[in-house]
């Protein structure tokens, strides 16, 4: 239930304070990149006698640089992430349309797969053409997800609490044991 409450608070923070939430998310992403970079460097250094260990060292260095830049310039990081989401949506949408065309002789309802692909492409183009709105859209999606996730966890917590109380009463001294 505590995780649920924190998720709801995080979602509300994202909705009520978008600029701070964007900077915060980009900064957290940067911290994660630094931790991942240090880990990759450590593993690469520890396995330096093995073939291709230099790839892990390179990955670690790139992670450290990207993490540092994400912390120093969180707005640019957010913008890059939005462009990444936009291009991802365009590529996956194109693959869905292509898949629907290829599968039209083997399945029925391929129209819906193609439509999903077109919607994905349109979303990607929108995000790339209007990155500011794209950043807010992604932030709102994260916020709505976080709030819904939090409500679900709280509901689960209440349900598990009720089950626990029933079982404790059932097996308690003086209770009605089966």
Describe the structure concisely for a colleague.
With 178 residues, this protein is an all-alpha fold. 87% of the residues lie in helices and 0% in strands.
**How is the biggest beta sheet arranged?**
none
- Poorly predicted ranges: none
How many distinct helices?
6
Kindly estimate the percentage of residues that lie in beta strands according to DSSP.
under 5%
Number of domains: 1
Proportion of helical residues: over 70%
Number of strands: 0
Q: What does the radius of gyration come to?
A: 24 Å
The N- to C-terminal Cα distance equals 30 Å
Element-by-element helix/strand order: HHHHHH
What is the mean predicted local confidence, pLDDT?
87
Globular, elongated, flat, extended or rod-shaped: what is the shape?
extended
Secondary structure category: mainly alpha
List the SSEs and their pairings:
Layout (H helix, E strand, L loop, with lengths): L1 H15 L1 H29 L6 H20 L1 H30 L6 H20 L1 H41 L7
Explain this structure:
This protein has 178 residues and is mostly helical. The chain has one domain (2-171). Helix content is 87%, strand content 0%. The chain has six helices and no strands. It has helices at residues 2-16, 18-46, 53-72, 74-103, 110-129, 131-171. Helix 1 (2-16) crosses helix 2 (18-46) and helix 4 packs antiparallel against helix 5 (110-129). The longest helix is centred in the C-terminal third of the chain and has 41 residues, at 131-171. The protein is extended and about 65 Å long. The two termini are 30 Å apart. 20% of the residues are buried. The model has no long low-confidence stretch (mean pLDDT 87).
């Amino acid at each position: 239930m505590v995780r649920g409450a924190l998720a709801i608070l995080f979602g509300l923070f994202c909705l009520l304070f978008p600029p701070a939430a964007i900077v915060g998310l980009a900064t957290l992403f940067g911290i994660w990149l630094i931790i991942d970079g240090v880990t990759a460097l450590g593993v690469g250094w520890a396995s330096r006698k093995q073939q291709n260990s230099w790839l892990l060292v390179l990955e670690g260095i790139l992670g450290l640089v990207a993490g540092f830049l994400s912390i120093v310039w969180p707005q640019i990081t957010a913008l890059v992430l939005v462009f990444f989401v936009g291009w991802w949506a365009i590529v996956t949408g194109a693959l869905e349309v292509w898949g629907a065309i290829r599968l039209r002789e083997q399945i029925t309802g391929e129209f819906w797969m193609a439509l999903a692909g077109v919607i994905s492409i349109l979303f990607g183009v929108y995000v790339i053409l209007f990155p500011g709105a794209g950043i807010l859209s992604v932030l709102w999606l994260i916020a709505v997800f976080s709030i819904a996730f939090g409500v679900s966890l709280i509901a689960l917590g209440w349900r598990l609490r009720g089950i626990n109380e029933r079982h404790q009463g059932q097996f308690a001294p003086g209770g009605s044991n089966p």
